[in-house]
Amino acid sequence: MNNAIGEDLTWFWKETFMENYKLDQGVVAVNYDSSQAAEIIIENYEKAAMPLIIEITTASNKKTRQTLPVEIWQYDHRYIYKTGITEPLSSDLQAGGALRIT
User: Fold this and answer.
1) Could you confirm whether domain 23-101 is CATH 2.40.70?
2) Vertex 5 angle, CA 100 and 101, to 5°
3) Who's near 18: CB < 8 A, 6+ residues apart?
4) What's this model's pTM, rounded to 2 decimal places?
């Protein structure tokens, strides 16, 4: 199967069928760096590691979608995503409305 896709999916087969790991990922915090760009801290609470699709909504209702590969979890259970967005994020971020992980 890996050869047909051209991508190493060992992580998927191991976590899904061999180990039966649980997937639980969430946003820990949103901080702003020295240039006032948003940094989103994401944590992997369980052992399963999956790629992330993040959709961010700003205060002006502009949406940005980014796909992060599974390799972000290779060295740590916490990842800081530097958005490069200097506009304020939507105020309902903590309720999950401005940032969606799918």
Assistant:
1) no
2) 5
3) none
4) 0.74
